[in-house]
Amino acid sequence: MKVLSVASEVHPLVKTGGLADVVGALPGALGAHGVEVRTLLPGYPAVLAAVETKTLHSYGAFFGGKATILEGEAAGLQLFILDAPQLFDRPGGPYGANGGDWPDNWRRYAALGKAGADIGVGIVAGWKPDIVHAHDWQAAMAPAYLRYGGATELPSVMTIHNLAFQGQFPAAIFPELGLPPAAMAIDGVEYYGGVGFLKAGLQAAHAITTVSPTYAQEIRTPAFGMGLDGLLNLRSDSIHGILNGIDVDAWNPATDRHLAATYSARTLGARKANRKAVEERFGLTRDTSPLAIVISRLTWQKGMDILVSEFDRLVACGLRIAVLGAGDAGLEGALLAAAARHRGRAGVVIGYDEELAHLMQGGGDAILVPSRFEPCGLTQLYALRYGCVPVVARTGGLADTVIDANEAALAADAATGLLFAPDSGQALVDAARRLARLHAEPARWASMQKHGMRTDVSWENSAARYAELYRSLVAGR
Ligand code: ADP
Fold first, then answer.
1. Does residue 24's CB lie within 6 angstroms of at least one atom of ligand 1?
2. Confidence class of residue 78 from pLDDT cuts 50, 70 and 90?
3. Does domain 2-245+459-475 have CATH number 3.30.460.90?
């Protein structure tokens, strides 16, 4: 079984969020199920600098310039790289620079989708996939190009990592996409009078997946559907909720080189050295009160405004708080101000720091994740693996992966964390109070940590589900 995975970011080459982790980790896990994955990604400067490449195909004129499809290998991934300098050879992040998106993102990611569809129909000599698997709006035009290019037989999968990002553009771009006029229709790429990339992919793909069972239900409701709930309801028979796993080798407290001290569920005492390192890094007073960490994009989705509003009350509950994040300038400023108000009790590091994220998971007592919605969420999975108790909003993948420490779960010795109602400051504060009470009972706390660490957060089960889905699509051709 050969699968072409199409994505705009892949860990460890280019990453802005959980999408990259998933696209980077899934191929390795699928190998054990007899699935060979090759990943197509854009030739950003960082990618071309990191990968030794060979040219497989040259386009003459391709979305405003010359382009080539290169082949290479990095971090155990078999890659196709769309090298189109006029689209991807730019400084800054993958989607823009200085906080703004590139104005031609529609062209950049239409090109990615077209290249994916071309590889799907065999443009590259010697390798033709059985399935094309597109991730998020940036890759979503691949199924649409397959559909309108007449390759409707080739099964395609569209995965929604976050429905909030849809790739919506004005109708004026349509003539530049190279699609037949009939595609500009309600059952095609047209979306509220413009062009919707994700919408086009959801319409064209043979199967739709999203990254947790709860989110698969939530996106069919107006509250979470972001305008696409109608379409998703029509396609409900084709939607599958498959939880993300994590890379359990990169995230292993027993071998993690970013920790001050490695440990296992049997040597939880060793976490103290990591806790001390976190306390020092964030300028926190050293004591026995619970150390709550936050590792997050600083956005409304993640409930970071709620964290800001309730910061003083959370500290008053007895928590010390260490925040690592970057995002909205207003939230960055508000968090820095909150830390300044609570010197010694709270610290904030603004920025993206993978190593520090590992250390925090290894030293924090609990991680706070107050998201308003969360397709899957990865930080709570890392936390489970690291014995850092997840305290999370009851939504999406957070609800699917954490077992709340209610009386019944505690009595049955099954709890792994705390769940609270999303979008509520009071619920977050109540959860912080429960956290502080439980933390004061060392035996119960250690039991939660150990249960969390035993939770299977690997790709094992999920990879099996993807493999099963691929097989059913190929069989149903
Ligand atoms: P999303 O993809 O919506 O941002 P996820 O929880 O699925 O949320 O994935 C976030 C990923 O990014 C995790 O790997 C997390 O550790 C990482 N991350 C987020 N913010 C930071 C940061 N400031 N520094 C380091 N890692 C971060």
1. no
2. very high
3. no
